[in-house]
Amino acid sequence: RDLIGPGGAVLRQLEDRFGVSLDLTQEGCCLLFGNDRAMVAKAKSAVMDLVADVVEGQVYEGTVIDIKDFGAIVELLRNKEGLLHVSELDFNNNNNNNNN
Asked: Among 90, 91, 73, which residue's Cα sits nearest to residue 82?
């Protein structure tokens, strides 16, 4: 559903953006076709982002989109959000790679 979008809009957008053809099989597989290998790889990455599920315990890099009293709402994958609870934050860890 995330891959097709309303009226196939997401599917068409991916095809236009990356210059590829996408075909969805009855079994739920997505087939990508294109002349430019690099663009097919980028399209595959975009498709994987759209259909991927967040797995508990997995480490993700994300963008904080909102801060609440109880933690932060983080966008983990495209259209996938999660709660980073305040109890999981380490305010004493300075992960700065500069040695100044």
From this structure: 73
